[in-house]
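Pilot study result, target chain (360 residues):
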Amino acid sequence: MQTYELLVKNRAVRGNSPDMTLVRTSVGIDQIHVLFDNPEWLDFPITVTFASKNDMVTKSLMVSSVDSDEWVAEATMTIPWEVIDETGSVRVTFQGTDANGNHIITAKGSPLSVEEAGDVEQGSVPEDAPAIDQWQQAYADAMTAVNNAASLVANLQNQLDSMVSNAVAEVHDAMDIPTASEDTAGVVKVGSGLTMSEDGVLSVGTVPVDISSTVATAIANLSLLAKYAFDSTFNDGTFASATLRGNMIPEVPIATEDSLGIVRPDNTSVTIDNGVISAITYTLPVATNSVLGGIIPDGTTVVVDNNGVLSATGGGGDGGYLLPKASREQLGGIVVGDGLSVDENGVVSIDIANADEMMF
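Predicted structure:
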């Protein structure tokens, strides 16, 4: 592989190889080795652009640091085939851009050029060289031979399988070995869930199980899983076996006022949400003429004792209403005296018949 060295100094590109001429169509055999003079090139993701007369190709460039007094970074990459496909100069530009839009870029430079390959003297074709149709016939004959050989191998394999099967059957008949069953010892054929080694050792293999259906069954039988414990074995995520350890958790009694136990919410005053049990908050309505509810006693005419008993005080504290005495300024009760009478309806009248003296 031919390597062309480029120098990036003061953001300018120049060639540093004795010959910077590429041969057209020399794909995959030419590369550049770049040296950078400024540490700023290590702070940016770097791209390199190759531009010929009709093509422009941009590639990412992996830059690594260099322990040198003059150069701080270097990189190597293969020259893209697109710019070697035509003759002429090739411009090479390096640019670094970060996520914030900051960038550095070299000035335009054309350190490489592409030229046609030199003349090569062609040899003469031998007179006895086969014609094209002869090559095609030879290829067809070769393919026929290959197919015949493959068919022969397949036939031999079938014959061998048949011979082995017949031999096994003959041995089986000669030894008069019965087929194994639940009640009879005999020969078996390795089936699903079993494996056999090369030396004839029969073993339990891996039984594929749909884990999602297993989980669904476990949830459906939650009461059983809560009462019993299992030792389960998995191979590469596939269920292999499960061993019952026995009843690990005793039966839980129903809770009472005197003993702990399990409870069930009534969903009216007590609820459970994701395993959290809560009391439903009750709001007492205000009492009205048509709705039962709560009241607040005024503490003067109506009071509530320590037992929650509501009573009317009458303002006097004796449990009834205390009627004040009547006066010129206040309505109230009177005692019927001389010259007055009161009927059964409580109407007060002047008793003229019994009056000793009347003044007008």
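One observation from the pilot: The CA atoms of residues 216 and 222 lie 10 Å apart. A full batch analysis is planned for the follow-on phase.
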